[in-house]
Amino acid sequence: MSDKNSRFNAVLEITNATPYATSMTDPLKEIWACDVFGLQQMEESLSKSAFKAIKKTVQTGAELDSATADVVAAAMKDWAMSKGAKFFSHIFYPMTNATAEKHDGFVITNSDGNAITEFTGSLLIKGEPDGSSFPNGSLRMTNAARGYTAWDPTSPAYIMHTPNGSVLTIPSVFMSWTGEALDKKIPLLRSNAAMDAAAQKVLSLMGETEIATLNSSCGAEQEYFLIDEKFANMRPDLLLAGRTLLGAAPAKGQEFDDHYFGAIPERVQVFMQDFEDTLYRLGIPAKTHHNEVAPGQFEIAPYFEAANVAADHQQLLMTVMKSTAKKHGFCCLLHEKPFAGVNGSGKHVNWSVGNSTQGNLLDPGSTPNENLNFLLFCGAVIRGVHKFGPLLRAVIASAANDHRLGANEAPPAILSVYLGDQLERVFNDIKTGELHVPKSGGLMDLGLSQILKFERDPGDRNRTSPFAFTGNRFEFRAVGSSQSVSGPLVAMNTMLADSLEWIAGKLETAISAESDKTAAVFSVLKELMEEHGNVVFGGDGYSSEWHTMAVEERGLKNTPTTADALPALKTPEVIELFSSTGVLTPTELESRFEVYAEQYVLSIEVEAKLVVEMATTMVYPAAVNYLSSMASTGFTLEFSPASKVAENANAMMAAVEQLSTALTTEEFDSTEAHMDFLAGTVRGLMDDVRAKSDALEMLVSDDLWPLPKYREMLFIK
Ligand code: ADP
Ligand code: MG
Fold it and tell me: Does the CB atom of residue 221 touch ligand 1 within 6 A?
């Protein structure tokens, strides 16, 4: 680099760069799902009977025979090869938040040494990666190094392109040789089946005669940061930990509220449009994009889909987002809190359940008090969140999300349910037994004749609630931006299955006792609300009054850190929930605790090591250079910050010493003790180093500072 400060070079290069641009994009009709082997492609290439069989599997989860699998495999191969694919891959979803894939060629050679291609039903159905190289918790102890991937026909295969080739990618489950789930997809499929079975019971007790398979749906809103990759490459913390571990607050952050929904910077919009075109080719319905609250922060929300497909699409979306950002010279940060002092990123998971005969069961319609199916399903959710709040908190727990939950921009670490005025009143009425006619929102009339009047929603929004009813679905708002949506979906489907089972039991008795079905439903819901109504809260979830009231008066749990939250996975209620519904065996659940605890430990240790390294090799030398440059002037400087610099540099290195010692000397009897130590001690020591480093950043000459500053990363595009 020519300039002695590579930061300044980066700024110059970014300023002078020509934005990356693709040619004008193609019409939606031409690109939509063109890289997906979906039902339409199958219908075009399969015999009528084979298509009928695979369609039934896709739509209802019915078993598929091996002859049909062979036919589908052949058609899939022909289709993929016609699009340039020479390789195929089973993509799977291990217990990290990432995906995994192993690529195999279609090619084999015959006895003449000629290349022919092969892709049989058995190759489609089953792959065999090494199970021991992925986090598997205690399942590793069962000597099961072998792992299998198996085709999930309910999530369509697709083609991933690079400029030099294409790969047929097949969504799959991943299990150990002993048949234990090593992934996030198996529990999701099982949780959906458990929810379906319990919902069928309730609906048939309610007199429904035709009941199609129920499925859960998911629409995930993804928040993220984009910063120029030149800055990211100069920061070891962003490269290895995904967040800034040091960095002083800029003079201006988000306090002007001028970024949220602001005009999207052109370079970012060019990125978004390129990214969304790729999503469309993959059949992912990108729907909404906008600026988020923090400078440099944005959001994308696809239209909702069946939960299993949405979960796969969400993982794919994160992969495509990162690679497209790179093409545009950006680094896409999915971390929950990349920058201290400005908002972090979440992933709101919108969730509902329904089927083709009864529709969306969380849609209240215009008269919720008369919609008995809705009331039962909504009541089931209330009971689930109350009974399994600690589980919901545990499935979104991570070292990264701990920085967000309970901070200003995110819901607190206390799980409560927001229903909105109208519904809250309906459920309270059920509890007290005094039913009122619910109020609708009424007409919105601004008194301006040119603005058409419209029907106001019956309830406002509550951004402070971690679990909010939003008209026809629940929105789990505490999920972190880098997390897989599968964990939350599994928890929600499973708690719903449990509650619907409970409701079915109660309802059966109540219906035989009461001649009137409405009275029977209301008596079950009254009991439910008396026991679980405490979880319903419409006020300000950020307020300190709520924190006290929730814990002291309502008996809800406040678990601010992962170290507090994860052990919920080991409680008897949660073990019983997962085994009674058949979603996870006790061993599978235990392995999840171990994997997530290990990830927590590892990520804090990586961060702590980075803090030590950056403070020692980047910040301290900058401070010393500055001191020596001042010393070399030969003048006596009246306002010299030298003593402050020296003081902070010494204090920082003392804190570094403490942090290094803490990292090497402690031994722990249990994972829980190790997590507690990291949460209670190591994080504090990291903050001590940071405080001194950030003070130095405000003292040391700008041209000697080695790390890109917040103002540069957040504001220069
Ligand atoms: P907001 O920011 O107002 O919450 P967005 O439009 O950003 O709303 O996102 C709402 C998300 O909820 C979208 O992904 C949308 O498709 C999804 N959604 C809508 N209806 C359902 C439903 N029945 N089940 C699941 N998700 C849904
Ligand atoms: Mg939302």
Answer: yes
